[in-house]
Amino acid sequence: MLLGRVDTPGAEGDAESELVLDCFERASATWAVVSRDQQEADALLQARRPAYPALERLGPVLTEDVCVPRTAVPEMLAGSGRQRPGTTFWWPTSPLPGTATCTR
Questions:
Q1: Does the pTM exceed 0.85?
Q2: CB atoms < 10 A from the CB of 85, how many?
Q3: Hey, is 45 helix, strand or coil?
Q4: Is the dihedral of CA 80, 61, 47, 41 positive or negative?
């Protein structure tokens, strides 16, 4: 689960959210959404917590938080899969591998 957060208020923030969503979709996210309100955004953030024990059942887990400029999100996602050729890459914070979420 890839979470993006936009703090810019108003129409400019809405436009930024759509840009982040577009980046996630262009990077082949299997599911991407912009939250409609704070309650939904909080629920998406909380959804990450139970994913760790489920993922650990598949094998060793290494998690890292990353921060890149929004223009670099597509390359970050594409590059992650090139780090270990021949292996399956999982985003380790989601019960649905490859899920991307943009919280607003």
A1: no
A2: 6
A3: helix
A4: negative
